[in-house]
Amino acid sequence: MRLGVCYYPEHWSSDMWSDDAARMKALGIERVRIGEFAWSRIEPEPGVYQWAWLDQAIDVLGSAGLKVVMCTPTATPPKWLIDQHPDILAVGADGRPRAFGSRRHYDFSSPSYFEASRRICEAVARRYGSHPAVAFWQTDNEYGCHHTVVSYSPAAAKRFRGWLAKRYGTIDALNNAWGTVFWSMEYRSFDEIDPPVATVTEAHPSHRLDYRRFASDELVRFNRMQTDILREHSPGRPVAHNFMQLFTEFDHYKVAADLDIAAWDSYPLGALEEQWFAPDIKARYLRTGHPDFASFNHDVYRGMSKQPFWVMEQQPGPVNWAQWNPAPLPGMVRLWSWEAFAHGAGCVSYFRWRQAPFAQEQMHAGLNTPDNRLDLGGEEAARVAEEIRAVVSADGEPKVRAKVALVYDYEAKWLFEIHPQAADFHYPRFAFEYYSALRSLGLDVDVIPADASFDGYSMIVVPPLPVVPDDFGARLGASGAQVVFGPRTGSKTRDLRIPANLPPGALADVLPLRVWRVDSMRPNVTVPVTSDSAALKGESRHWRDLLEVPANMDVLARFDDGHPAFVRHGALHYCASLFDDALTQRIFARVAAAAHLDAAPLADTIRVSQRGALKYVFNYGDTAYTIDNVRADAFVIGSSSVEPQGVAVYRAA
Amino acid sequence: MRLGVCYYPEHWSSDMWSDDAARMKALGIERVRIGEFAWSRIEPEPGVYQWAWLDQAIDVLGSAGLKVVMCTPTATPPKWLIDQHPDILAVGADGRPRAFGSRRHYDFSSPSYFEASRRICEAVARRYGSHPAVAFWQTDNEYGCHHTVVSYSPAAAKRFRGWLAKRYGTIDALNNAWGTVFWSMEYRSFDEIDPPVATVTEAHPSHRLDYRRFASDELVRFNRMQTDILREHSPGRPVAHNFMQLFTEFDHYKVAADLDIAAWDSYPLGALEEQWFAPDIKARYLRTGHPDFASFNHDVYRGMSKQPFWVMEQQPGPVNWAQWNPAPLPGMVRLWSWEAFAHGAGCVSYFRWRQAPFAQEQMHAGLNTPDNRLDLGGEEAARVAEEIRAVVSADGEPKVRAKVALVYDYEAKWLFEIHPQAADFHYPRFAFEYYSALRSLGLDVDVIPADASFDGYSMIVVPPLPVVPDDFGARLGASGAQVVFGPRTGSKTRDLRIPANLPPGALADVLPLRVWRVDSMRPNVTVPVTSDSAALKGESRHWRDLLEVPANMDVLARFDDGHPAFVRHGALHYCASLFDDALTQRIFARVAAAAHLDAAPLADTIRVSQRGALKYVFNYGDTAYTIDNVRADAFVIGSSSVEPQGVAVYRAA
Amino acid sequence: MRLGVCYYPEHWSSDMWSDDAARMKALGIERVRIGEFAWSRIEPEPGVYQWAWLDQAIDVLGSAGLKVVMCTPTATPPKWLIDQHPDILAVGADGRPRAFGSRRHYDFSSPSYFEASRRICEAVARRYGSHPAVAFWQTDNEYGCHHTVVSYSPAAAKRFRGWLAKRYGTIDALNNAWGTVFWSMEYRSFDEIDPPVATVTEAHPSHRLDYRRFASDELVRFNRMQTDILREHSPGRPVAHNFMQLFTEFDHYKVAADLDIAAWDSYPLGALEEQWFAPDIKARYLRTGHPDFASFNHDVYRGMSKQPFWVMEQQPGPVNWAQWNPAPLPGMVRLWSWEAFAHGAGCVSYFRWRQAPFAQEQMHAGLNTPDNRLDLGGEEAARVAEEIRAVVSADGEPKVRAKVALVYDYEAKWLFEIHPQAADFHYPRFAFEYYSALRSLGLDVDVIPADASFDGYSMIVVPPLPVVPDDFGARLGASGAQVVFGPRTGSKTRDLRIPANLPPGALADVLPLRVWRVDSMRPNVTVPVTSDSAALKGESRHWRDLLEVPANMDVLARFDDGHPAFVRHGALHYCASLFDDALTQRIFARVAAAAHLDAAPLADTIRVSQRGALKYVFNYGDTAYTIDNVRADAFVIGSSSVEPQGVAVYRAA
């Protein structure tokens, strides 16, 4: 459990660096990330490198006892490079190149940029690969930010054709897989295939899904080029990338497979404002963020990180990039920091040391104000640094082990976006709502991919997962866990077709359903769910699978027109719809009970986590919360009365 | 009264064809539409035709006793043709060609495509023009779908100039007609005129209206090329096109004039979701469709069809293309089928035989599920097939004859779209609301163009018709019918100018009004309507014509600021506004009474129709409806108690 | 106090001109504006001028005793000119040239157009510069209409680089000022800088603000070219331009500095519909306009006009260009006219003499209907003409002198648009709301720029003004006035950076605050404001500055979390938020009382103004209003009972 900070020596006079480093250290900060946007200072003219300032900055930080997280600067190629190679610019769906003047103005498929990136990465890696202060690396910055994964450039089109040829072998195989006979879309060769854009009406969904897979793979290849260089020139230093939950246009699992540390950038207030939440929820959690949003992402990235995951950028105050940017309540920067550690973080690094008084992000708070006074977030970070010692001395830094797993998938998002059948069928939202229901029962959750091992889990929840691995049902059946599936699970083949046996496709081997019809519902429509059990009554929203079920399957709840709504087959449960939050919670509580898990509803602003022997309690609400039945001397942080925005940590009985 | 189905032999293994044909026949299906998207299979390489599979498919269908509706495949030119002639692609208002990869990716003005279409039509027509199983033809598919009528290509610009030269003769005539002196928009020659697009603010409305007329005429010309070829090579076989109400960017009357059968594609649930209806209406009729929507279109296409109109595609279950795609209630497929016949349909053809498991429309239901089991829609179709025999034996297949006519116009829609003066002045909506008011009174309605004969009608309703034919007033006056005009009737000349005598322009000869001012009202504003007659009180919405009326005109209702709201001059009635639904219904009831028609309000989910000696009753609601005063032995289908989603047919007294 | 009218002789047969002129004169009209869209008639072919018709038109008007306002016709270059020089067309943010076919289709930076404009202006100015009937000039027409200030053309890009070079001298100075080191956006030369458009995410805000300044300066230069020509060829005739409040993409002060008369075009109903007002406000003032909207603009343009300002175009009835276009209530055309005079107008000129029956604006009312009968607006104009005599004879035409000033700025609008930090931070709205609060207290207001003299004002209100002149605080302090600042005042430097001492930057010298954090709030969030004074309780909306205040500063109200909401330091008051309307009114009443001004809340539909010795009362409501304590013989117009839409003018005691 360490604290870090993001720092931009190039933004400040070198006169300030020593003082900055000393104050960081005094505050309890141990890691400093630098350099991710510094290309124009490292190489101000083509081929002319200026290392002196950066050498000095790293030396100053290292001398202060800080460890540097060095970045490759490829997120912001300088203007001279763009002017040399205009093909670096990605092309939007509107057919226009995306211009220089902000960031991420590059195309993952551009050969010029691939080479230029290789060159600058090698230069930086060679220079600092064995510098004693450089202890970690970060590749690029926030892949996918500003919708920069998919490009419609000629370079992308060309590489897509090669990708298709590799995937399908022959054009006949592609035509068969996609079903291009529909609407005379048949191709005679891979060379005839264009990116699926600017069509009269929707382009072919299999074509679109493959284009999204291709774009994701291009990013993976780009990142791997960088990790290979870094490992060659800086052996032994962990390599990280800072993901963001919001940027799901590529497969985070595949990128993480090439990293040592999956880090993410946590902006609870900006995320609340920009995501799917309803206006009343946005107002309610305006200054705290949603109680489950950061947690969800901690669990996502913990799952894919080889070493303990990091929060590479932690919101320290108001930000600048959401439509509205409220100030967090006092205490929230501390709460968010502890929440990350409770979920297993190895490091929480604040963005940024000092607010910059210029450019696009001048309204983004730092730990210090632009006039270099310690801001509220800085004070809270200092408190966290102190508290870390108490916690680590009480229990060390054990791994988080959850009994519940939630299966989370990136292709599912692309697929439902491309082929929704219901305009508001938003995969991350539904996955998050399942996660939130589990958390509202006090359960710790691992978030895992569909091809993960299921060993050790008592309960596995599968939000709508259209494409399931072939052995998914068999492995789930063998796991011994209680399993809950959301609707539309198994509804598509890998080629984005309807399975020959209808949904749930391959799952039907273990869960002998047949979804003979689907029913998509606009937002102002719900269907009542009825049951003999009062706990299973509620409302159905968004979607219904109409099920044909065998006589030996338990129909636990039905829609009011008689179709099965919630069924059980041994340990496997299937939700034929997305239910209201309360019904989802009761269903999960029922399944958790079957799994012999201790699950009970929490107040909706209280969340709990367990890491090792310690239990963490977080209060997102506006009234104090009392923890019952814990002895006063068990508390490592706080006490049994948890103030609003407060944190308590105690030894679990 | 026949049933048909849309079938895609190219989507399935030829092994399945015989069984499919046999099962169609057994179900009661008699016509099978094929081939409209099969170009890439008919001509997989340039100039290389592969007839064998299609020969076989047609033979299989014919051998089973089915009659084939053969289509020209021009809605989906294959990729190789686009690559040969990129100018085939239409150009959007954004200046970009609309790419290959879905359908309707062609420009009606492209000379390359006109020639390529002629070639493939001739090839198909020669091959099957005299095949014994081929009994009908369909040209292309759903002209206008996906906003594909208007193109801004160089080819269209060039042909537009020729169209203008033909219409106006001299550039001075055009300048005078349009009034280009306004804003210095004068042209010195036709060559100076571009398509009206990408202008700084709105382009000249007369220019825009002529461009829309031109685009519609281009489509008419394209279709006529096809009907000429089909009539040459397949004499005696009726030629149809499958229109869709939603696609009103061209003049359906002009296309229908070149056809034998005006068919349309009826998707009551998709249409409800995608059209102007308010969210509460969309929720209320979620699984039935609006009670008047399909009927309105039956009456539209009956009016323009030389032979009995067809429903070429009938929704058989949930579809895929609306924002939300609910499942119809059980019984609705049957109800919709009977409603079509009640309105005079010659054939109801379901789309499609079997749901395809691939490509864009894989979520579109068929009569059979993708795993080839008979779906609910298939069961209901079988029931309809049986019931047809009873109905035909009771009364044959008489023509529908209505006493009430509603005047419906396509240019009116374009004109109000181009030049609305009130952002939500939506012509099809207002025409539909007038139609719906008539239907809610139990009246059968013919939908006719403004230049139709008015003989035999007792009552004629004219929704807002901006441009009236010169002799419109005289013919209406001579008809002897009671007439109701909506506001803005006669408000424009053919060149989209204000008439010299102000609105209602030429109509003032018979209806001596002067609309001296207009008043457009935002959606949250209404104006009360007052009258000595309680039945004529209500609310005015959207729009007001402020009328100067002669002393001898009856002012039957006034707005609360004293301006006339509803006036009568002999048999001619003028509504100076769009009234609330209930007031519109009461006004129409009053006029119907003056026309000696039997009109009485129905429950809002009950609709009735008469065809020949039989009366049809449809229940769109959720409670049973009782038909009074009909003897039990008069019923041909059903009984005096009509269940929800039920149909009854009885001999009218 | 004169009446005028806009007239288009080229739209009508020359047979009608004499009658038109005679009827204008008889109605009481004295000025006639002509020619602003007549280029295609003046120069129908390149270099071929046709003066005869225009000579005749001017002669007819002059002979009738009317004075002509002659316009330069540069708002509508003809098609032949565009075809000769396609680079005249401005380029949109989408990269496409904006096509011919409406108006304002030109780029202020196009060298071709600058020269063509110079040529036509000289031709017109030479021809009519000394014509006895031509008494005034208007340059172009409604600069900025349809978002035509900013262009992204190559010509604009080239001139922008020159503009930057002039502003910054060296590229290093620019890099430092903007802070381009952020995100590696550093430039090596001015030639590398492109317009800030089409970037992946937001372009650099300083870059964007400079581009807006540049675009405004280009317009100023274009207008100055015209005023120079007019003054050379028509010395002694005042030169005007007709601004519109809605078009704030350029600095109206800078253009006005080159004019003699700042005129504006007043469309109270269209503006209400198209601006920020909430739907219920739009419905409430549907047929009157907002009681403060026209007044605000009268005061804006009075402040920048060397001679008495004009209303060059006054709405005479319904217009055509808003989404909905309601008819004004009878009496409103008169009320609006008198309101303009009450605020100091020298002339109110109606748009237009007669409604045109063709082209884009055919639904725009005139003083006469298209069939040439006097319309309601014409009748009201005649009444105003008569009343003017009584008013002028009672008091002459004195200047308006206000004790209250409101500081209004154009760059502020651009800056907050570019860099809002809160999506709905709409500068003109907030400035208007401050103005409205002052007016609701019966106060007359001067609207002035930030660099104006503050002499003679008792109270100065500063809506959120991000960039303050260096001497702003000192001058305000020296003025002796009571001052109220809105939030975010002084929050940015001229280069769009955060001031080194944090906001309020330079103002802190006189107002020693420190805004250490800001808090932006979504529309469904408010924060209570508490105070010991009941009058200072209310709600905070949109935004909060969190203030650090010295001990000697009065904190008059606080937010409910304790932060200061409203503070006073001597005569300087600072609002840390935007308050609800009622609280703003009470704050301004309190400050007005401190300034010894007579301020009391009016009914919300009553407004009063003083010009010289006369007091004007306007009733926007729907019930009569009684003026107390004024003797009957003091009334010059009306009486103490002011009917709805009524006007009263009386000698102030």
Automatic annotation (TrEMBL), chains A, B, C:
It is an enzyme of class 3 (hydrolase). This is Beta-galactosidase. One of its GO terms (cellular component) is beta-galactosidase complex. It catalyses: Hydrolysis of terminal non-reducing beta-D-galactose residues in beta-D-galactosides. GO terms for biological process: carbohydrate metabolic process. Belongs to the glycosyl hydrolase 42 family. Residues 402-597 form the Beta-galactosidase trimerisation domain. The active site is at E142, E313. CDD domains: A4_beta-galactosidase_middle_domain (cd03143). Its EC number is 3.2.1.23. GO terms for molecular function: beta-galactosidase activity; metal ion binding. InterPro entries: Beta_galactosidase_Trimer, Class_I_gatase-like, GH, Glyco_hydro_42, Glyco_hydro_42_N, Glyco_hydro_b. Keywords: Glycosidase, Hydrolase, Metal-binding, Zinc. Substrate binds at R103, N141, W321. Residues 6-390 form the Glycoside hydrolase family 42 N-terminal domain.
